[in-house]
Description:
The chain is α+β, with helices and mostly antiparallel strands. It contains four helices and 20 strands. The strands form four sheets. Strands 3-10-13-12-11-14 form a six-stranded antiparallel beta barrel. Strands 7-6-4-9 form a four-stranded antiparallel sheet, with no helix packed on it. Strands 19-1-20 form a three-stranded mixed sheet, with no helix packed on it. A hairpin with a 3-residue loop joins strand 17 (about 335-340) and strand 18 (about 345-350). The relative contact order is 0.20.
Amino acid sequence: MKKLLISLVVVVAVVTAFMLRPAKPVEVRMTTVTTGLIESLVSNTRSGTVKACQRSRLSLAQGGQVSKLYVDQGDQVESGALLLELWNDDLKAALAQADAQVRMAELNKASACRQAEADQREARRQRELHNRNLASAEQLDRAETSAEITRLSCQQNEAQVMQAKANVAVQKARLAQTQLTAPFAGIVAEVNGEVGEYATPSPPGVATPPAIDLIADGCLYVRAPIDEVDAAAIRTGMPARVSLDAFRDQSFNGIVTRIAPYVQDSEKQARTVDVDVRLQDMPDDVHLLVGYSADIEVIIESADNKLRVPSEALLEGNKVLTLSDDGQTLKKQTLELGLSNWTWSEVRSGLSDGQQVLTSLENPAAVDGARVKVIKGAEHE
């Protein structure tokens, strides 16, 4: 019994000593509060897409057999360049005939008008002779009648020239319906058709592949969906940053050029508003392709040289954990915040430049009042 009592005393002493032993400090990472740039941002909810400012899916106005293909996929073309042509020898012959008719009408006009000028001179001469009683009234009447007839013949031939030129315009319009030309300078993205194949125009309401898909690659923009709540803060002209999966380590400057005047309400998706950002000052060594996926950040407001804290250090209720005066104990501090994004939050009051805040919030032991030991590698980039 005595030995049992002694054993119990020893156990109690050991437990008491263990409980009274100081707790081991919690290892934490801290970051120093400094000043810097802070921005209020709005970003897209789903991936956006790089698009061309001009893109035309060109189709022929009429059907026919493809006679000539002047371009291939990937070719750069100038505005007005001939891209594709249907068989049109009959229309070219008709145009040549119309040109010849213009030439003939112009010659007839020149002959008739030259005769009219001569008859006008003869009528004036007969009038002078008649005034001096050297020509009869009958001679004067014949001269003036002849001058009037040839004048009208000149006008008639001038109208025939206009008619012949109008016929040329008609033949050119018919010929143009068999030719596909570039409405602007760009790159050929797609060619559908081969020489000898029969091409047909798209019926109304039926989507068919274009004969030529032409993209103006000199002007690009990103269209991305923004949540309807965030879109209300965006205005055209606001600066933006664009990031692309194809260029992960780079971001590109842009400017908001369009905000859709309606909300997309597709089934099973959040309601969004499409926002267009025009890319600006692209580096020469960066070649973007239409169709690249892209993300945008619209800068709603920004301020430099502001006291800021990493947003990841914030607790519920705009609080952070900082060090007490002894430098070894965590204490909770309430902040007044200003501008913020997912990286930084502006501190208007509650902290001062140089103070440290806890960033290792994943440790459940790092709570208000806990003894801590600050480890290296804590500064926030």
